[in-house]
Design a protein that fits this description.
The complex is a heterodimer. By secondary structure, chain A is mainly alpha-helical. Chain A is built from nine helices and no strands. Chain A has one domain. Chain A starts with a helix and ends with a helix. By secondary structure, chain B is of the alpha/beta class. In chain B, 38% of the residues lie in helices and 25% in strands. The chains are: A mainly alpha, B alpha/beta.
Chain lengths: 238, 245
């Protein structure tokens, strides 16, 4: 069962490449989810239920619909995203697979960014399905370039912070309730900026008004990616 | 190959390991025995770089932990009672995933090779969640050697296995050990440990309290050696408590 000497000599040097290990984790998450569809179906069903409930609970005229669309959308994405984040890390923890990842000779931030990308892909797929359904139910055109950009930036921020906090929460027995308690206060700037920017886009407001929220989203994504990069090693350390 | 001196591990106010001294030569198979709560798993987690020592020095394959953890991880294979496998991936996909993490070349060939070794080649395209506990543990062995490590750390590998699965695991572990790897195995199953290990160390109350080569222990005498060591440690602990009072 031994490798030949040449192969072994090559493989005993240092860490596996950052991108190779990161993509291995993304591939693993997407392949496993493609088979089980547990995480994706939970997120999607939950998201659809939320927009249905809002649709029936708030009987709105056209003007009011435009005003609340951004809020309803982001509440839906935030709650559905929490379900996904919890499940994504629980899969690693429950069967001890997180230890398997930590035992590999890879930069631990590659593990973190691999999980972030996986979570982001699941969120974006759910959002891509929710948007047309929402458009039909609320009779609102959500397919606008600016709005898509805001959703992308907001989702990145959400996945970046959510993955870090879910890797903390998963260590606790009360992880299901702990994650939203940890996450929502930290993610509040993203939600406020995303709701504001989305709302302005939908109302056709000028770019001057939208730009500060976009800047905040971009700054948040960059800063929290750097913070998570620095902290993840300590978070998963025993 | 492994050298540990004055190792202390604390969790908050509780000290789990209290100055462990431990050394394993290359190619040696050491059975690490001890009662529940003795600190065996904590000790193996430190050797595998999953946990940091509070005090003391740990060297694995000449590299110091935790500073040179990446180099150590590349030369280590770890098998615990949890298989560390993804149920929604096939056996082959699990091995290829871990192989990528270790930068193993010719992954399809290598994964098929280790699957044949553990007798699972015919099930390589089946999802791991359809495997029995014994099959999962055999696949976990394949996972732990996919990168051909020099050192294997086995933490209670027999937990939850029936007799047939244990016997099959014995065969696979013997085959792996015969390839000249250094192996440290914790186990409560003294009979199985007696068949595999060449040396036995007893860890109790956070310290290695006894060590003996298999040739120095009479046949069927491992249980006696183990009990005597643990009882002696308990007596010394009592004496130490009395003198403190």
């Amino acid at each position: 069962m031994s490798l030949n000497a040449e192969t072994k000599a090559r493989s005993t040097q240092g860490q596996t490449s950052f991108f190779k290990s990161m993509w291995a984790i993304v591939w693993k998450d997407v392949s496993a989810e493609w088979r089980s569809r547990e995480l994706f179906s939970a997120m999607l069903v939950f998201a659809l239920l939320v927009i249905m409930i809002f649709n029936f609970a708030l009987e709105l005229n056209i003007r009011e619909r435009n005003e609340i669309t951004a809020g309803v959308l982001w509440v839906t994405f935030a709650f559905a995203g929490t379900l996904g984040l919890n499940r994504s890390m629980a899969v690693e923890k429950d069967r001890g697979c997180l230890d398997g990842l930590l035992l590999a000779p890879v930069d631990r931030s590659a593990i973190y960014f691999g999980k972030v990308l996986g979570n982001l892909i699941f969120m974006l797929v759910v959002e891509a399905i929710v948007l047309p359904i929402y458009s039909i139910l609320y009779n609102t055109n959500l397919f606008q370039g600016g709005l898509i950009l805001v959703i992308l930036l907001g989702s990145i921020g959400y996945a970046v912070v959510g993955t870090l906090l879910s890797s903390m929460a998963v260590q606790a027995r009360t992880r299901d309730v702990l994650l939203p308690i940890l996450l929502f206060p930290v993610i509040l700037p993203v939600l406020i900026a995303a709701v504001r920017a989305s709302s302005y886009y939908l109302q056709g407001q000028p770019m001057d008004l939208i730009q500060p929220s976009l800047n905040l989203l971009m700054a948040y994504d960059v800063i929290f990616s750097a913070v998570a990069y620095a902290l993840f090693d300590y978070v998963v350390e025993e | 190959m492994i050298k540990v001196s004055k190792l202390v591990k604390r969790f908050g106010l509780k000290t789990i390991l209290k100055g462990v001294e431990f050394e394993v030569a290359a190619g040696e198979f050491v059975g690490l025995l001890g009662p529940n709560g003795a600190g065996k798993t904590t000790f193996l987690r430190i050797l595998s770089s999953l946990s940091r020592p509070s005090l003391g020095e740990v060297r694995v394959a000449g590299y110091r932990l935790p500073n040179q953890a990446a180099a150590v991880r590349r030369r280590l294979g770890v098998l615990s009672h949890q298989p560390l496998l993804y149920g929604d991936l096939t056996a082959q996909e699990n091995l290829e995933f871990y192989g990528r993490m270790y930068d193993v070349e010719d992954l399809p060939g290598r994964s098929l090779e280790v699957l044949e070794q553990v007798g699972l080649a015919s099930r390589r395209n089946d999802l791991v969640r359809t495997f029995s506990r014994g099959m999962q543990q055999r696949l976990a062995i394949a996972r732990s050697v996919i990168h051909d490590p020099d050192i294997l750390l086995l933490d209670e590998p027999y937990t939850g296995l029936d007799q047939d699965a244990c016997a099959m695991l014995d065969e696979v572990l013997l085959a792996i050990a015969s390839e000249g790897r250094t192996v440290v195995m914790t186990s409560h199953d003294l009979a199985r440990a007696a068949n595999l290990a060449g040396r036995f160390d007893v860890l109790s109350r956070g310290k290695i309290i006894a060590s003996a080569a298999r040739k120095d222990i009479p046949k069927d005498g491992l249980l006696g050696f183990y009990r005597q060591a643990v009882e002696q440690a308990n007596i010394e602990m009592e004496r130490s408590n009395v003198s403190k009072r």
